[in-house]
Amino acid sequence: MRPGLAPWVAFASLLFVACSPSAPATLEFVDQSPAQPRLGEITTLRFRAVDSRGQPQAGTPVSFTLESPVPGVELSPTEGVTNTGDGIVSVQMTARGGRVASAVVIATAGTGAEMKRAVSPVVSFAGTNSNSRQFTFQCGSFSGDGSGLHHAVGAWDETRALIAGVKVRCIAHVGDRNGDGVVGAQVSFLTEAGTIGPSAVSVTDVVGNAEVLYKTSLPLPQDVEPGIFTWNPQKDATHTGEYLAPLWMHPFLWDENPIAAYGNAAQPQQDRPEPRRPDPIRPGIVLNPRDNLVSLIAITSGEEAFDDLNNNGVWDTGEPFEDLTEPFVDNNDNGTWDPGERYVDTNGDGRWTGKNGQHDASTLIWVQERILWTGMPHALDKDQTQRQLDPLPNAPPPLISHFGGISISFIVSDPWYNRMAQNSGNDGCSGGASGPVTVSPANTGIALTYPSFNFETYLVSDAHEPPAEGPPPPPFNPPVDWRVTPICKYTAAQLEGHEAIVQGPIVRGTVE
Question: Which positions carry the signal peptide feature in this UniProt record (predicted)?
Answer without folding.
Answer: 1-25
